Request: fold
Amino acid sequence: MPQIYQASVTAPVNIAVIKYWGKRCTKLNLPTNSSLSVALSQENLRTLTTASCSEQFDKDILWLNGSEENVASNSRLIICIENLRLLRSRVEKENPGSQTLSKMNLHIVSENNFPTAAGLASSAAGFAALVYAIANLYKLPQSEIQLSRIARQGSGSACRSLFGGYTSWEMGNNDDGSDSQAQQVATKSHWPDMKAAILIISAAKKGVSSTSGMQATVATSTLFTYRAQHIVPIRMQEMKKAIAARDFQSFAELTIKDSNQFHAVCLDTMPPIFYLNDTSRYIIRLAEELNRVAGKYVAAYTFDAGPNAVLYYLSENTQLVLGLFRECYRKAKGWSSDARPCVPEGFNLGLIKNVGTGVCQVILTEVGDGPKETDESLINEKGLPR
Amino acid sequence: MPQIYQASVTAPVNIAVIKYWGKRCTKLNLPTNSSLSVALSQENLRTLTTASCSEQFDKDILWLNGSEENVASNSRLIICIENLRLLRSRVEKENPGSQTLSKMNLHIVSENNFPTAAGLASSAAGFAALVYAIANLYKLPQSEIQLSRIARQGSGSACRSLFGGYTSWEMGNNDDGSDSQAQQVATKSHWPDMKAAILIISAAKKGVSSTSGMQATVATSTLFTYRAQHIVPIRMQEMKKAIAARDFQSFAELTIKDSNQFHAVCLDTMPPIFYLNDTSRYIIRLAEELNRVAGKYVAAYTFDAGPNAVLYYLSENTQLVLGLFRECYRKAKGWSSDARPCVPEGFNLGLIKNVGTGVCQVILTEVGDGPKETDESLINEKGLPR
Reply:
């Protein structure tokens, strides 16, 4: 039996605080504006991917969460694999004795440790893990920044999952995408107090896909170009400064404003795109009232292309923030002993009425690290999923 | 007993298709952008106001829908009354024999023919009727355009209720507001096929008031200024052209886009302002799908500072438009024999599931006339509300 070569890695989910929305080139996944995100802990949310290759494999196959994907029809996947094979073939050319892994077919197995039903964008972690796993399998010399340019072509925001902590995706200027890449803004340990809670909304329905949605916005929103060209560049600078200074007030204000503006340009699209529902809006009201009562930002909310909320908060405010949401959503799964249900003094109690079932699950997590190698393999000795 | 002088008028509700949102001067109610609206038929929606004055009246009193308002604390009301008294005193100076009505106190009684619970902006019709009634009582020579500058100071959009049909509020340039006034773009008879339906949302809660909401937008939305300065001026021109040409396709597209953009800048406000709820958004989806199936715009939706929908449509599409919404909201009050419940062929039936109780009432109406004198008086021989 020919040998099976393999490498396994994990990669984190990232949640943007300055949003990516709109491509200037759909083929290369080049964005209309830079963006910035926070990697979440892989304890709670991660993709585990094993990439393997062998002369005995007949074709490239990807198994994603237990089902075989059609690689031939997934052009984004093919682009990533071909880019990595090309880099491997250079390694082989420069090291004549090395195995010609670039000529072998790949078997890739990928699994998330969170349910797809959670509605969290899993493609970012998925493509980051896939690229990082194959790069490790091929023992490529490329840096994470360089690999991020490949992951970007799989799924735009995947480039940001090549790093832990706080990561920007610099949009770049070149037409070939050679400068559209991710770079780390700060590590997780730079700001260890930063926590995150994800509130999963019950019965969330699948909305407009982000790929088609963002291009509809580019084509029809008259506010969008102004945002991309005039507002986001300023916010990127301000957000980097806020993170460097561990300034939660600025971080929260920018995070909230940018989430709302992203959903505003979705609404300015023809036909309009809605991701927030009444529960999402209710969570916003609760967070705004909490910040008002606290006299400062203690909870920064952000929403991606779906109704689920992500809250960033500092560990010193854990009881204040989680206590309120636990009071409102006692029946949700996932609460910990970190916080008991509690409404802060002075809070508008009229807002607490009629709460209850909008949130089915919470995920309490924090800022996390970037992709890691692991010994945990998802393939068996035959090169098939375990 | 001293004589009681009186005049009674009715004025229409108007619903903007290019939205007013934001003041450049709050004292004079000068807007940041021009706007354009449609007056609705007074058969269905109107304010009836009787203005009277007499030497026997001790003070200015306003009875609004049965309850006495505190005139002294209503600065907007005082401004309107003082402006009109000043104009009357000029009439008296020029006509030495005339009664000195300007020295007498006013008793004003005002009533809407629609429930306040309907959540329709009644201040526009209310201030228009009040100004027009007092102007008639005083036999002022001023035109509707001139009177609209006074009504504007009561409630911005009230200036547009001085006319029937299609009316623009030209924002003007002068600091004193002397050129910020309404003017008729087209009469009701210019486009007799235009119909309107109002869908009243069940259990609509009072949201942020439009006065405080719009100034929060001016202060905090980074998209707002761009809309006011660069987008609305173009849309005003296009909308006037669409109305002149009776071009429903352009009319509908502009109406829809401007409603969505108005709600987008509300969402871009800090803290964000929400007027649309899940039912509002559902109505949008139904209208968008209806237009898609029809292959053209047949229903133009617009939402003011609340969740209720207003649909404009041409009479030839009555069955198509009302039939769909009647199918979805069979239990709502107010449907007529004009349309039976019906889902058009090719309509995405998945959208029809789980409909039912979001809309409690519909008001089927059409474009209407401007303010009118009436013999129907709301005061009795003692100068008190009947």
User: Anything to note?
Assistant: Chain B has two domains: 4-187+369-373, 194-366. The domain at 4-187+369-373 of chain B is CATH 3.30.230.10 (Ribosomal Protein S5; domain 2). The mean pLDDT of chain B is 95. Chain B has eight helices and 16 strands.
